[in-house]
Amino acid sequence: MLFISSYDFYALLTEIYLLNAICALLIYGVILNTSYERGHPVIDYNISGLSTQTLIVSLWLIVCSNTPYLTSWNSLLVHDFLSFGIKSTILAISLLWSLIIFSYNKLEKINLYEYWIVSMLAIVAMLFVSCSYDLLAMYLAIEFQSIAFYILASFKRTSEFSTEAGLKYFVLGAFSSALLLLGISLLYGTTGLTNFGDLSKFFLGTTLENSSFINITFFGVVLIEVALFFKISAAPFHMWSPDVYEGATTNVTSFFGILPKLALVSLIFRFFYFCCAEVVTLLNFTLIICALLSMIIGTFGALAQTKWKRFIAYSTISHVGFIVAGFSTLEFNGAFGALFYILVYTLTSLAIFSIVLSFRCLAYPNTYQLRYLTGIVSLVKLNPMLAGSLVAVLFSMAGIPPFPGFFAKAFVLFSLLQEQLIGLAIIAIFLSCISCFYYIRLIQMMYFTHTKTILIFYPIEKTTSTILSITMLLLVLIFLKIDLISNFVHCMLFL
Predict the structure, then answer these.
(1) pTM (two decimals)
(2) At what angle do helices 214-231 and 260-270 cross, to 10 degrees?
(3) How far is the C-alpha of 145 from the C-alpha of 125, rounded, in Å?
(4) In the chain, which end has fewer C-beta atoms inside a 10 angstrom radius, N or C?
(5) Interstrand relation of 360-363 and 366-369 (parallel, antiparallel or unpaired)
(6) Which candidate, 240, 262, 259, places its Cα nearest to that of 119?
(7) 10 Å Cβ neighbour count for 26?
(8) Cα dist. 451→18, 368, 446, 454 in Å?
(9) ∠ at Cα 316 (493, 137), nearest 5°?
């Protein structure tokens, strides 16, 4: 019989508060709908402000929580420093993200309060993903997150591009969910276990010689690996990412690009390094292949792009390749590099989307969002501070010192060299040099390309400018205290 103690509720205090607040916001939005017509700005402004306040309180709750290492809800969820660190980061970045899209929603007249409700539900799902300690909890949390993403991708019902993005994401996402469920079924049918702790003990000492069931187990783990790699858009399971990024509205694309991978990477670490460490050791070559393909496809795919969102999508695939390369070492040095990389990537993604959302052109009396890379030609003449911020972000993404992107790539490469994966390290360095070309090409457009016609940019809103200033300050000065992030990651790995 399921025994529920006060610790079970205490450990999920943040999630319980968020779910209750979301239900209250939903009821509040329905009541306001009776006073105003559907899609009225008053409803959106109220719900967006209250959602931001809810995220602030949630962040305060998780930071002030003193939860010891424990498993709750019959060992379905685990609460340790890894889940604490990931949850804190998710809520902090979610708060900053919510602030940068206020102006976009206002200018695009996205006045549907349901957008904030679905986004908040997706954030709750990420919190559950980060603390999943059972295959069933993992599956339910991922599906909870995916359903919210399907709705967000097709949220703009008047746009055929948004509808196409949502439909394509749903079809491919359902296929990956089927693979995930099949892998879980094979593992449970073979072992009779679903808990991560029980599975880690069961697989202890597993080799090719002493396990007659090893083939079925391998197949189940590979299916789960494929499903998780699909969710983080690692090649060759990346096909949905550029189309969904391009078809969805920019505020939804920023949500997809900044937040979900953080929770999923922590889940991959827990699954690979704790749950099925012995089995994954025998499947190391699959991680190396996915890392190699992600870096190659992401790097050369980004070279051919002319639109901002597809460019960011392929750049993300390349970064995911470095994260998977860190995991491919199957050592804690590599895991440290991968988790450090995802934290830096999340901060950099927040900065790049803050800038992209600021690229709004003025065509009196209307405005429109900039779609093509060539639109930033001679940006330094119109807004030198914005151009300088973009240069710093691009340098960090390219891995140029002293920006944090350099340290993130260096940690992954050092772990590859330590584990004698010299070939993969050399290819990663070579592809990083190629990626510098398309990042520097954007800088060349801003500073050294002259044109007779220059686009006029709409003034940046104060909230977006403030968030961009905070992220840029962190990116530029974080090398002075890089040990703060490294110590934070070390605590997540070993506590």
Answers:
(1) 0.93
(2) 160
(3) 5
(4) N
(5) antiparallel
(6) 259
(7) 17
(8) 50, 21, 11, 7
(9) 50
